[in-house]
């Protein structure tokens, strides 16, 4: 079994409704995102999936979040745009895009800072 990861980032504003502190006020982060896929079969040039394709599809998903107020995004109308929910949103958008390549998305990790990250992992 092989596992690949690629990274990208996006910048956005958010606030956490009902948060007991400063994060209840609008503020921004440069979120760093890492995704991991796995699969068994290498293709005819001996790669699982081209990093370029992985990065392209991740970017498509992140472009929808980049430079947005995430609290105004349809995905976060009834739930907070926490790192946890952002990771799950990216996972759910990205997983179907990668299926045709024969790889499985297994983890999306979203970091608000170098010291604070949340992952959504395949059950
Ligand atoms: N589990 C989570 N906890 C928090 C989240 C989150 O998404 N998931 N988000 C926040 C806020 O977004 C806040 O902006 C981040 O707070 P904090 O980590 O305290 O950020 P600081 O810049 O103050 O970092 P320090 O390391 O404390 O300097 C809060 N919690
Ligand atoms: Zn925040």
Automatic annotation (TrEMBL):
Molecular function terms from GO: 6-carboxytetrahydropterin synthase activity; metal ion binding
Residues involved in Zn(2+) binding: 14, 27, 29
Residues of the active site: 23 (proton acceptor), 67 (charge relay system), 112 (charge relay system)
Reaction equation(s) it catalyzes: 7,8-dihydroneopterin 3'-triphosphate + H2O = 6-carboxy-5,6,7,8-tetrahydropterin + triphosphate + acetaldehyde + 2 H(+)
Enzyme Commission number: 4.-.-.-
Entry keyword Lyase: yes
A Pfam family per the record: PTPS
Keyword match Kinase: no
Highest rank taxon of the organism: Bacteria
Enzyme's top EC category: lyase
Keywords: Lyase, Metal-binding, Queuosine biosynthesis, Zinc
Names of the cofactor(s): Zn(2+)
This protein's pathway: Purine metabolism; 7-cyano-7-deazaguanine biosynthesis
InterPro entries associated with the record: 6-PTP_synth/QueD, 6-PTP_synth/QueD_sf
Single Gene Ontology BP annotation: tRNA queuosine(34) biosynthetic process
SUPFAM superfamilies: Tetrahydrobiopterin biosynthesis enzymes-like
Record text on cofactor binding: Binds 1 zinc ion per subunit.
Family: Belongs to the PTPS family. QueD subfamily.
Name by which UniProt lists this protein: 6-carboxy-5,6,7,8-tetrahydropterin synthase
């Amino acid at each position: 079994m092989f596992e690949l990861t690629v990274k990208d980032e996006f910048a956005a504003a958010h606030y956490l409704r009902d948060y007991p502190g400063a994060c209840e006020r609008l503020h921004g982060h440069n979120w760093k995102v890492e995704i991991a896929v796995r699969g068994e079969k290498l293709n005819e040039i001996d790669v699982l999936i081209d990093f370029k394709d992985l990065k392209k599809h991740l970017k498509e998903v992140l472009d929808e979040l980049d430079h947005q107020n995430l609290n105004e995004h349809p995905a976060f109308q009834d739930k907070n745009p926490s790192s946890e929910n952002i990771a799950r949103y990216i996972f759910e958008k990205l997983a179907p895009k990668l299926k045709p390549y024969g790889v499985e998305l297994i983890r999306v990790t979203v970091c608000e800072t170098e010291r604070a990250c949340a992952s959504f992992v395949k059950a």
